[in-house]
Design goal:
Length: 249
């Protein structure tokens, strides 16, 4: 594998291009089960027919785990939004259409979102009373089986030169409730300091999916608690505040 052409770099992983392959190389903090679970998620989603990169292999390179996929030529929706701010509404509508198409799929081999959220809440570090409230609230929400990305952002949508959309980075994929997936996307916009875009996203999601805003908001505390598990100190104050809110107005 040629690891000279870096196309993206994160604190715990680096993505390289080698011809028609993309190589996601993880650091030592990732276990074999972490990486192989992400590889399995991607394989399941791709085999379902939804436009995601095809997996080629999962292996160790120089002692570090890597996932190797086909390389998708194109630019992300985030890059398009940054380059052409006057077209933001157009791109947001495309973004939502892709997400709603995703939610129309069912992939029963994926882990269920509710089960994953219960495990995250148990490990989030909040007091027992708060965890009990969150577990109870989660049990009271509908258990759907729609394909959910878990980190659906414009940076994870690639538009090819032929104008076809591919969705990448399926490490958090589950089957579950579409509004939970939307709440997670809203949270990601907010944590990145894009509050106006977060509100625009939620408005369009609710309009296109015919979903009450209050219903999506019921998931806010749950997705915030799940994000606390990552332990990012810069985000912890906001996430803790969200996770402790009983009801959103």
């Amino acid at each position: 594998m040629n690891l000279e052409h870096v196309i993206a770099k994160r604190p715990t992983k680096t993505i390289y291009r080698d011809g028609n392959l993309a190589i996601k190389l993880f650091d030592e903090s990732y276990t074999a089960s972490d990486v192989l679970n992400e590889a399995l998620n991607l394989a399941i989603v791709h085999e379902s027919g939804f436009p995601a990169p095809a997996i080629v292999n999962a292996e160790k390179i120089n002692g570090q785990w890597a996932i190797i996929t086909e390389f998708i030529e194109g630019v992300t929706l985030f890059e398009r939004m940054e380059k052409n701010p006057e077209k933001e509404d157009e791109y947001f509508n495309r973004f939502l259409d892709i997400q709603l198409d995703m939610h129309s799929n069912k992939v029963p081999r994926l882990r269920h979102h509710t089960d994953k959220m219960h495990a995250k809440i148990s490990s989030c570090g909040l007091p027992a009373t708060s965890r009990y409230e969150l577990h109870t609230r989660l049990n009271g929400l509908p258990r759907h089986s729609k394909l959910c990305h878990g980190d659906f952002t414009p940076g994870n949508v690639i538009i090819t030169p032929e104008n076809k959309a591919y969705v990448i980075d399926w490490s958090h994929a589950t089957q579950g409730n579409a509004s939970a997936d939307a709440a997670r996307t809203y949270l990601r916009f907010t944590l990145s300091g894009r509050e106006k875009q977060a509100e625009k996203y939620l408005d369009i999601f609710c309009e296109k999916s015919d979903t009450a805003r209050q219903y999506v908001q019921k998931w806010f505390a749950i997705v915030a608690a799940s994000q606390l598990v990552k332990g990012n100190p810069e985000e912890r104050e906001l996430l803790t505040r969200w996770a402790n809110i009983v009801e959103y107005e």
